[in-house]
Structure formats: structure tokens, C-alpha cells
Amino acid sequence: MTGTRVYHPFLLGLYPPLALYAHGINNLFFETTLSGFAISIGFSAAVFGVLWLIFRDPGKAGIVATALIVFAFFYGHLNNFLAATFFADQLTVAGQLPRIVQSWSLRIWGIGFGVFVIWLCWRKADYGNLTKILNVVSAAVLIVPAITIAMHLGTAPGQGGTAKSGPPAATGDTALKAKGKPRDVYYLIFDRYGSRRALQDLYGFDNGAFLKSLSDRGFYVAEESNGNYFGSHQSLASSLNMTYLDRLTREMGRNSGDFNPLSRMVQDNEVQGLLRGAGYKYFHLGSTWEVTRLNKNADVNFSGKAPNEFLSVLMQTNAIPIIARKWDIQIKWIESKCFRVNAKLEMLKQIATRPETTYTFAHILLPHEPFVFDADGRCLSEKEAVKRTWKTNFLAQLRFTNDMILEIVDELIQGSDVEPIIIIQADEGPYPARLVEAYLFKRPFNLAEEGTDEEWSQKMGILNALYLPGVEAKGLRPRISPVNSFRIIFNEYFGASYDILPDRGFTYRDLEHAYDFIDVTEKIR
What we know:
2 domains, about 525 residues, two-stranded antiparallel ribbon, alpha/beta
């Protein structure tokens, strides 16, 4: 082939990260996507280079490379389509196709690809015209995600992902000064950890013994506590800024699906700013969720080598994890959750012994899926987990989480010269049964529109326990909610004068209406 340059493998290699960024642009900062783009382009270049060395024909090498790129990057999407369309009732606890179906789909893809390569090698032809067509088609498929991104950047309020006025400031003092000797402050978020009532209703599990263990250690356990918002974005933006989010509704509008202002609020939150201003050293123990993975304001970031969320999603939609499961190869970005959780536990122990006054925020994805812990703390392989029911996995991981929390609490209290302030809290409650089914079986379900009062109580009911040594804290009550946690702490330990807000709960209509808040307070009483 002469005269026709081969662009299509490289253009097509750009499509998966570009489309993923366009799909999640309301939840992503561009800088987090760079590794995904680099790997996709690098993979395309490597495949084309190897095939060129084999065929010594750029046209033929480009066509085979494009076929291989389509297989590598789109095979996972094919499996998702099969899962949602034909095998919805047979999905595993991880939302995967049964292994026999994965095995056959992999064979069909492999045989088809092999036949295509053999045919291409056997055929003697000039591939100039086909190369031109593939160049045009591969460029054309980039148009839709590129337009989506351009439209978002051109029309999103708060260009660059910030609301016009930044995080809403809480009413109170603008500077803090500790009364007496400063105490370390720990804000430990355990994701989707439900209230005693929620766990009883959903799983028939009585968590009373664990809550009593916290009470016996001096915690105030708010057994009737509910989250202020449905979902981690809104919940953490609210609790870390000690405020409700009505202001964002006015600034962003009810029809905005741009979550980036919420992400900025979590990053540049009021609590860390006030405590750092009071001389605290800020330790940030992040999760795999990009919003809390790192914090630019922290003195120390520690995520236990948490992978970039964008890259993880990109990898999980290609052929690699399916092929790995076929041969029982461990999926490191899933099972490394065991390492990360245990590493955070060790890090917390180390922080407790440090001489400086510290503020620690830790976002721990427990008992949140993926399910990687047995009740005794043993790390489960994905192969083991998928053989169990959701309930079995959740309760095993919950029991481990309970033991872990008590171990952390004992270490923090015993390792500190001055008793610390500790908040153990969930950002949201567990999934009600119909939400679990929607997640596993790819079924549409909008809790905001279809949820019952019972389901709202289950989803909004959260673990909320506060260790506040040396004070008789005013404002504590069984229904105390996260928006008031630091208002109480700053009032009691720093002499601030924050009002204690009413405890209310909100959801948002859907992902395209992130600030169209619906008050569900009466549903969750």
C-alpha cells in the first residue's frame, strides 16, 4: 500500500477514554483522565508497531490493529449488553455474566478474530481504499463525544468546575482557637454503613452489640441519625462545609447535572480550612473514589496506592478482566482493596502517636462493595465472592468492619496523650433491595420517584457515633445529622458559636438534576 497514511488505530484508540470522559464529564476533572488517554494511545501505538514488524505492510498492520483494539476496548461493553439484554436474571453478585457465558462469548470473539486475521494474511490486495474509509469512520466516531465535551465546557455554570461563589461558608467564627490543650480530630467515613434499623430491615441483622461496644467506650451513638443527602457527593459536601446545599441550587440551577462544584466543595472544604488555620496538620486518607482519593490541601495524602478511578473504569470495560477471570488471574485493582484498608488501619495507628496536633479525614469503602473481606478479616478472592449472595457478602464485610472500627478506636484513644475527638459516620446508608437488584440486574429504578417511605428510611439511615471527651456537648440528640457534627465540635472545643441546624434529609431528582433537591425528611422519621 502506498500513499495512504494509517490513522485509524490511533483515532479509534482515543475513543474509549474520550467517550468515558464525555459520559462522566459532570463527575470528572480533566487531569484525572490523562493516564487513561496515555495508556490507550500507547496501547494502540504498540499494537500497530508490533503488527507492522510482522506484516511489513502498514495497511494490513493497521487493519489488524484496529480489529484488535475493537476487541480489547469494546469486549467488556459487549458483555454488559449481553448481561442487560439476555442474562439479567443470571448475573453474579458482582453484576457479571455467568462464567460459562463469559467463556463462550470469549471463544466466539477469539475465533472470529482469528479467522479474520488468517483471511487478511491470505488475501493479497491493496488496502488503500479500505484504509481511507477506516480513517474517516474512526475520525467520525470521535465527533459525538468531542461535541459533548465542548458543549459542557461552553455552557456549564461556574466554568472549570466551581460554583460561582465557591463553597458556602458556615455561619460562625472565621478562625478557631482551641480551649485548653488541642485534641487530635478524626473524621472517619465508613461508606454505606446503615443505621441499626436499616440493617435490621434490610438484612435481619441486629447491630446492637457493636453499638453498645461504642457506647461502652464513651461514644454518643445517635441511633436515629439519618444522612442529610442521598449520595456521597452531596453528603460530604454538606458535612465538610457544615451547611445545607440550597445555595448551589440557586447558583447552578435545578437542571444542572454538573457534579464538579460538589467535588470542589469536598476538596476545599470549610472544616479542613478552619482546622489548618488553627494549627492542625491535615492527614487525608483517601479512597478509590476520585473525589476523595487525594486532597490538594492536605499536609499528608495517603490512599494506600489507590488507583485512578477513571483508569480503573476504563480497564474494567475492556477484555483484560474477563480474560483474567477465565484463567483465574487475580484482578489486582479489586483485590488490592484488602491491602488499602489494612494500610489505612496501620496509618491511623501511626498518626495517633505523632507529636503534632492532627486532623485526619479517612474515607473507607466499607461495608461498601466490592466485597473482599470475610467476617474474620481474611481477604476474599473475587472467585469466592461471586459464589455468595449479596447478603452473605455484605454481612461478612460488615462484621469485619465492626471489628476494625473497635480496633481503630482503641488504638486512637490509647495512643494519644490527650483523648482525641472522633467521629465515626457513614456518608449514606446501604442500598434497599430494589436498588441492589437494579445494580446487579441492570434494571432501571429511580429511588427519588419510586421509593417507598420504608426504602428511604433504609437508604438514609446511617451509623453516626461521636467521641467527645471532657465536655457535656450541647445539641446532641438521637437524630443528630452530619451537617451538625463539626458545628457541635467547634462550639464545644474551640469556643465557636455555630447554630445547630434542623436535621433534614434530601435527595436529588436524578443525575441530570443534581441540585433539584427533594425533601424526604418526613419519609425517614
